[in-house]
Structure prediction request, 248 residues.
Amino acid sequence: MIHLNEPTLKMLIVGSDEQSSMLTMLLSNIPNVEIIEAVATTKDYVDRIIDQPDINAVLLSHTIDGELNAIEAYHKLRLHGRMVPTVLITNQLLSASYVADLGIVDILETPFTLERLKIGVEKQRWSIRQYQFISSGGLFVPVVSNEIQLFTPNDILFIESINRTVYVHTAKGEMESKIPIKVYENYLMYHDFVLTHRSCLINLHQIEHIHENIIRFKHATQTAVITEDKKASFTKQFQIFMSKGLRN
Prediction:
């Protein structure tokens, strides 16, 4: 069986205090959803989306307070280049084509059930996966153990081989893979993955900082090592990478 990596939704809830409390309770029953904040005005909605790039999903009430209405605020964010997968919550009958033209992924008409909310959340996940797939050049990276899991290159921090066992590291943890590291190296060589020693392949996009021979990664506790024989070539490749402005 093949499984796509399930992205964690970092959710902003936009609506009344009562509605936000209800949504928070329902979302606690859905795995891999982290509520970043709940706000009640369109100004706070726009400010949070612009100021907090980690937010990757929004539950947006159609009736919220502010100088702009919900749709106007959503459109303003699109003009700023922040197209966050959004589910619109409304007590009005809206046509699917109306919100599809805006890029809203789903409409929840109140009242709705937990199961109906799960459908909206899954549409948000699919939107994120689709963006990740396109932005990674249409490439999935397989991890083969008892089952096959598919990741985008940006999901992966580094891949290493220890005593002939290959481990693929993501921010969520590590997984064993039956694919040799040499195969991964050839597969990812044009996607900014670089060897720091003969058995460790690093994703340059995920480096937070480098101190002496230790690499630390964004949003993760794992570290990787640069061996002395690879340090000069790795440093040169990383400098070229940084000079091209390729970091996420």
Notes: The radius of gyration is 21 Å.
